[in-house]
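To: structure desk
From: M.T.
Subject: fold request, one chain
Message: Could you run this one when you get a chance? Sequence is below, nothing fancy, just the single chain.
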Amino acid sequence: MIQEKRMKLEDVPELIQQIQLRLPEKAAARTAVLSKSWLHAWSTIPTLRFHVSNEQKHLKIAYIDRTLIRYLHDNIPIEKLDLSIQVQKGGEWVSPAEKWIRSVSTNTCLKELSVTFGFWDASLNLPNEIMSSENLTKLRVSVCWEVPLRLLAKIYLRPDSADLKTIKVKSLPYLEELDIATYGPDFTSVEINHVPNLRVFSCDIYDGPRCMCMVPSPFKTHSISLGSSLTQLSLGGQGLVTDDESLNMIESGLFPFLESLTLDLICWRLASFRFTCPASSPIKRFFLTSCPNTVTEIQIYVVDLIFFSNIASKITTTSFPISKTLEEMKLQVSPRMGGYSASCLVKLRETLELSNKCYLDLCTHVPPLHVDFDLDDLKTRLEFLRFPPATNVQTLTFETCKDECKWNNSEFFDAFFEICRPKQVFANKDAFFQNNNHFCKLIVRTRNYDILVLVIL
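Reply: Done. Structure tokens follow.
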């Protein structure tokens, strides 16, 4: 009876490995002498733990090398790696440690990676391959507090696992730059706390691939405390910028050194976007992206703003009530449905008055832009409002997608030359029909402009 139970246990190597994982490391290693089954289970266990200290540290490099080479050569799954290196002089460990992490990260079975290091005389760069593992769901990086934390001055996270649920970054007093970009349908939380010296923070998170994420789901919870040293802030994706309340953290003056701000409005739910900062705010560069069709008005109350950029699906009424004249403004409009009326282009002409230099980028998407346009109506409106063509437009860029030659008979292209005299026109090929570039014919048909330079792309 005892022999029968023993055979059943040894017929299930995963069960043996679970027993070995629950034992202290040395005790688990001793089980390898019990039988060939126990030896095989120990030599193929999917969880690897390497702990290195000053004692016999030189023997450890060769041992870890041999173990990982055997696992990778024999295609033995590595589901979890726990690498801990804490030595007084760690310069000689940097290159091997980076190599080990890189080699294991390419293993598609890897689910958990834990790295603990403490070097007095060197820094460790975590390889980009960490985020390439398809099934990686948990990443932990720890540093001995006695070690200068210049090792973690910058963190770039690009996880693309569908199982990712939470990202936490805490208690890193020397962290200066943190960049997070990922997507996952079950992602619920970002927690950033106790990073007093953080200067650059970017968070871009969606519940699906960026190109498919039309209506992202909001976060269930998120906690972001960035300290007061921030100079560049970028927030995008689900739940981060949704309404007036979501801007309180920025508008309240918590970031007295903030110079550049980027906000993705893909989740914005109001018809107007208003942003107000204290008069002492140093913000000079403001970027809006993914501005939806529902937004009809934009107002930015920032005194010393010098650059503004807006990527939107339609032209909106834009104003800077308390700002000085902008030095530069970039407008990228990508309509997805319908067309532009004369009043819409008059609105754009009015917006061009707000900056010394302007850059316009028009890109149409499927379904094709409705190209029937009343050019006479536009001319009448511009003449009534005393709006001559603006001369501050540096570049005007056109691109279509599946326009099927509709531009050839349209006056919409000509309408842009009624509202501005661009110094350069960039005529892109059709994004879908690469052999088509209808803009060449249209520009030849257009009246001669002395200052016009055509660039065919």
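Reply (cont.): Residues 325-457 form one domain. Let me know if you need anything else for the meeting.
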